[in-house]
């Protein structure tokens, strides 16, 4: 079972990248919102490929979390230290890809999520030096776009190759099947139009809501950044601190519980 889940993750990654490569042909960073709407409502099959990209990416993230849980539940780790480290890097990159993708849809919720992230980085002592990598005053979307379609996918492929050593393609059809089943069962969240005449409560992607709520409660951005970094730190320590494996497993569990609660307040 854990073996199959890990290959489904790779398959979903392939579906996500291929569908991303299709939607990017109609995406214009200078007219981001308009081009996404055109893709959804005007371009033949555009909505289908957009949904495929969305659901394969969400399923990729969920299956990756399941894969991590299954690996942590094993008594003995079979990976080398470098393979373990690259798996944590791949996980961080995956969350960054999901986040930048959310910003790219460029509706009110996407742009707001991007602005919250930029202001969080600006107010975090060490991270603020990295702000020019994301912020572009002339075209808000531009650098998110570059990260999403180029740098992060390259980083993810690199980290995954060092983590899994080889890519099997025979599960691709399973990944495609899972994405299509999700498309049939669930509906994609509707884009929120920019309209100053009505008040809407915009939210970021589901995995960022806990952080957003902490910021709204007035918690310092530095602390919020540390909260977000904690699970990745626990995962790194998990490999090297053999004696504390059980403690780290509990800490991860507590973190997930608290973060889930914070996401719903
Ligand atoms: C595994 C890698 C990837 C993940 C996890 C991912 C994830 C996402 C997510 C979650 C969205 C938001 C979808 C929405 O809510 O509408 C998105 C949008 C987008 N992605 Fe990706 N993506 C990946 C790779 C790529 C690649 C390689 C490209 C192109 C070369 C790409 C191009 C786009 C474009 C143009 C959008 C905006 C259009 C839209 O919102 O549908 N993505 N991505």
Q: Mind explaining what this structure looks like?
A:
With 265 residues, the protein is mostly helical. It has one domain (2-192): Cytochrome Bc1 Complex, Chain C. 69% of the residues lie in helices and 0% in strands. Helix 3 runs antiparallel to helix 4 (81-104) and helix 4 runs antiparallel to helix 9. The longest helix is centred in the N-terminal third of the chain and has 28 residues, at 46-73. The mean pLDDT is 94. It binds protoporphyrin IX containing FE.
Features:
265 residues; mainly alpha; Cytochrome Bc1 Complex, Chain C; 10 helices; 69% helix; globular; binds protoporphyrin IX containing FE
Q: State the total count of DSSP E strands.
A: 0
What's the CATH H-level superfamily name? Cytochrome Bc1 Complex, Chain C
As a percent range, the share of strand residues is under 5%
Give, in order, the helices and strands: HHHHHHHHHH
Please outline what is shown here.
This protein has 265 residues and is mainly α. The chain has ten helices and no strands. The model has no long low-confidence stretch (mean pLDDT 94).
Q: How are the elements arranged and paired?
A:
Layout (H helix, E strand, L loop, with lengths): L1 H22 L8 H10 L4 H28 L7 H24 L3 H15 L19 H23 L7 H14 L23 H8 L4 H20 L4 H20 L1
Bound molecules: protoporphyrin IX containing FE.
């Amino acid at each position: 079972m854990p073996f199959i889940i890990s290959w489904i993750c790779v398959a979903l990654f392939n579906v996500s990248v291929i569908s991303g490569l299709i939607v990017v042909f109609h995406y214009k960073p200078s007219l981001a919102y308009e081009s996404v709407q055109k893709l959804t409502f005007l371009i033949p099959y555009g909505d289908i490929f957009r949904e495929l990209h969305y659901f394969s990416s969400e399923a990729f993230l969920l299956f990756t979390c399941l894969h991590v849980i299954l690996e942590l539940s094993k008594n003995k780790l079979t990976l080398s230290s470098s393979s373990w480290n690259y798996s944590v890097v791949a996980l961080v990159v995956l969350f960054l890809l999901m986040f930048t993708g959310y910003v790219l849809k460029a509706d009110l919720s996407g742009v707001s999520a991007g602005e919250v992230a930029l202001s969080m980085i600006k107010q975090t002592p060490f991270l603020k030096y990295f702000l020019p990598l994301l912020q572009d005053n002339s075209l808000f979307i531009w650098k998110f776009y570059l990260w999403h379609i180029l740098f992060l996918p390259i980083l993810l492929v690199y980290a995954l190759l060092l983590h899994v050593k080889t890519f099997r393609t025979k599960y691709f059809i399973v990944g495609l099947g899972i994405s299509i089943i999700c498309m049939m069962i669930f509906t994609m969240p509707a884009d929120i139009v920019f309209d100053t005449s009505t008040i809407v409560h915009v939210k970021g992607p589901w995995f960022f809501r806990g952080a957003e709520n902490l910021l709204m409660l007035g918690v310092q951005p530095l602390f919020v950044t540390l909260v977000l970094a904690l699970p990745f730190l626990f995962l790194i320590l998990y490999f090297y601190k053999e004696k504390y494996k059980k403690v780290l497993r509990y800490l991860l569990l507590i973190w997930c519980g608290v973060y889930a609660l914070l996401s719903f307040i």
